[in-house]
Amino acid sequence: MPASTCFRECCVSDGDGAVNLREPAENFTPGMRLVHDGPASAVFAGRFGDVAVAVKKPRLHTKTEIDRYHVELRLMLSLRHPNVLTVCAARAHPPEYFLVFPWQAHGSVAHLTHDAGWRPTTPALLKLLRETAAALEYLHARGIVHRDVKPANVLMGADMVARLADFGLAEEEVRLLPIRPRSRGARRSLRTFPVVTLHPRFPFNV
Question: Which of 49, 83, 200, 206 is the most buried (most CB within 10 A)?
């Protein structure tokens, strides 16, 4: 089985710049430093060769959570856009599961505004909105819904370019079609999508 295929053979990286999905963990885990510890995953700062990276280690206790990991990996491997964070390596082989991304030096927009005291000028704010909107337009054109757009999931690199990250809840649009009513009188409903908030004072729906 090629290194560009996950253990289940449902995730494949091909073409130029194919990603190794069986990257040995020792190639990026030594000296890792915890930078975020959330309920669904932990994120570490590390090195992959000579490159600074962020290493995401999801908490996978059930088959459903492992399924979700493979969906996230498969979707991210299909994306190539300057405003979407790309995968540069992965370990998709039991018992170890990791996702490795290029390090984004300024962290998330949430960190920049709430912790680092960043107060963007109007042009900088408009640039941030344009880049985030460009990422969403690209995803929607490919039939992908992110479902968790928020300041914590928009990262800023050293170049101050916004990159949409964390596809842990993302899904293909065809899998999010209206739920069929159980009976003739039942009301048709849609699965709900979270509110998108790029600035705490200006929430809006996507």
Answer: 83
